[in-house]
Amino acid sequence: MIRSSRLFVSAIFILSTVATFAQHTEKGLKDFYGNYFPIGVAITPRHLQDSATSAFLVRHFNSLTAENVMKMEPIHPEEGRYNWGGADAIVQFATENGLKVRGHTLCWHNQAPKWMFYDANGKLVSKDILLGRLRKHIHDVVGRYKGKIYAWDVVNEAISDQPNEFLRNSLWYQICGEDFIAAAFRYAHEADPNAVLFYNDYGTEFPGKRDKVYRLLKKLLDANVPVHAVGLQGHWSVNDPSKELLESAIEKYTSLGIKMQVTELDVSVFTNNNMPELHSFTPEQDQLQQAQYAMLFGTFRKYRDNITGITFWNVSDRFSWLDNFPVRGRKNYPLLFDEKLQPKKAYWKVIDF
Predict the structure, then answer these.
(1) DSSP labels for 101-116?
(2) Apex CA 304: angle with CA 303 and CA 309, to 5°?
(3) Which of 10, 212, 230, 258 has the highest local Cβ count within 10 Å?
(4) How many domains, in total, are found in the chain?
């Protein structure tokens, strides 16, 4: 009798475990965070051409970011000519499937077309001409997607990485000084008064960069510039940032009274730029990545009142921009899904709460 009771209890436990596992495998990543914040992903139009991948996107994510096709050079390669196709396809897919869209990015020193800065004779244009071109670009792009794109990374990576410099010495800065930053936010607000406008940057958790980002944001806010939120890109690794650094940064930025998102999340399995290709995802890397993702999402949940979205940069380990950066040819494994779009162990850590 006792043995039968034990068998019955064991059977109930097994069935309960199977049911729980089935429930978890049916739900997507976004569903576990439905009471916290949207879960997004950066994609290309090619992802939408494959039915399995597009179904995967709808299952796991409820926000999309265009990885490249909304950046200034791809979408506006020549004055007066736009390439709308890729951006339109992503926005249409999102609209049809009830997904939010983040716009990325309106003003950046990289992937900016040469024509924006030079005249017909190859000379740098004046400040007035450059700001006029920037205004038209922003009005055209933001205006086209008004009401369909809820948030924009307006200015991207304007802070210098050099210890003794505040702003990056880009052509934007060389021609306009720091005025281009406030101007970009004002132009975006003119084009869509309801859009949430972000300043977006990397390395935002580390004190040197963090304090400069804070200084820039405070200066903009004090001048009544319509900057609404800060984007922490989140290109991190299995050992950086620490929980303490991340929490310190979140608290410093939110002291300004603005919200934040993690806009480009991945967790590199390599701890420095000198590590060579290891040709496989090792058990040691797996363990470290699980622990880091568990810490990150535990922190995100803790600050749910301040964080309004998490976006992964690329869909799965099948492809990541880190595969060739900063070490050419090196394969990385920075995401929650493997090369076959299957959940990795880190995925289960992220939903285990």
Answers:
(1) EEEEEEEESSS--GGG
(2) 115
(3) 230
(4) 1
C-alpha span between 222 and 27 (Å, rounded): 44
Judge if the upstream peptide bond of residue 38 is cis by omega within 30 degrees of 0: no
* Residue with the two structure tokens 């300043």: 199
Residue 31 lies in a domain: no
Cβ atoms of 155 and 199 closer than 8 Å: yes
In a domain, 1, yes or no: no
Residue 302 CA, chain-centre distance (Å), reads 19
Over residues 30-69, the pLDDT tens digits come to 999 999 999 999 999 999 999 999 999 999 999 999 999 9
| Token pair for 340 | 């076959």
Q: Which residues belong to the active site?
A: 157, 264
The pTM score is 0.91
CATH number at residue 43: 3.20.20.80
Instruction: For residues 77 and 97, give the distance between their C-alpha atoms in angstroms, rounded to a whole number.
Output: 30
Each residue's pLDDT tens digit, 274-312? 777 777 899 999 999 999 999 999 999 999 999 999 999
Round to whole Å and give the CA distance between 160 and 213: 10
Determine the Cα–Cα distance for residues 95 and 77; give it in Å rounded to an integer.
Answer: 26
